[in-house]
Amino acid sequence: MAPLSDEEENYIRLALLLKGVSPRAVRTFFDKEFPPTYLPSTLNKNYNTLNGLFKNRILNRAQWNLLFPKSEQINEELENWKKDDKTFIETNGAKCVLKCIKENGCVVVTASSGSGKSSLVRHVALQMQNEGYEILPVSNLRKSSSGTIQLRRYCL
């Protein structure tokens, strides 16, 4: 594998900072101000306000679906992933991605179009689901429906 250029290395560092460190710091602060146990009731109490923001296009569909996901829609998408995953061949790359996510909290997967990035990340997400993580697919409405994947772990 070719070494990364300084520009590529800086991009990866920035991506890890934005995706790994910043969200944890913001979440820690946010959780102190708004405890997660009260989040569903807070969202439901402010549903009309949030709905107004959605109708006025301040919140987009992807953001709305994060706040109020349709569980049947998520389950259907995950079932499609599981069906597709039956033909997935485990590679060292998949093992490496899983290891990196567990160690660092995030990973950047880059490759040429059509090389299997979405299949790889979905496979890893399904493995993490088996370990207690909740999968919440997030689609980018401007691109294909493959989108990105958020993984959240809930402590019981």
Structure description:
The longest helix is centred in the first third of the chain and has 28 residues, at 6-33. This protein is globular. The protein has a domain at 70-156. The protein is built from seven helices and two strands, in the order αααααααββ. It has a two-stranded antiparallel sheet. It has 156 residues and is mostly helical. Helix content is 60%, strand content 8%. It has helices at residues 6-33, 39-45, 47-55, 61-67, 71-85, 92-104, 117-130, and strands at 133-138, 148-153. The model is unreliable at 140-145 and 150-156 (pLDDT under 50). The termini are far apart. It comes from Mytilus galloprovincialis. Residues 88-142 form the Novel STAND NTPase domain.
Give a quick account of the main beta sheet: strands, pairing sense, barrel closure: 2 strands, antiparallel
Estimate what percentage of residues fall within beta strands.
Answer: 5-15%
The chain-level mean pLDDT equals: 81
Which secondary-structure class do the elements indicate? mainly alpha
Q: Which blocks of ≥5 consecutive residues have pLDDT under 50?
A: 140-145, 150-156
How many separate helices?
7
- Placed side by side, the strands forming the largest sheet appear as 1-2
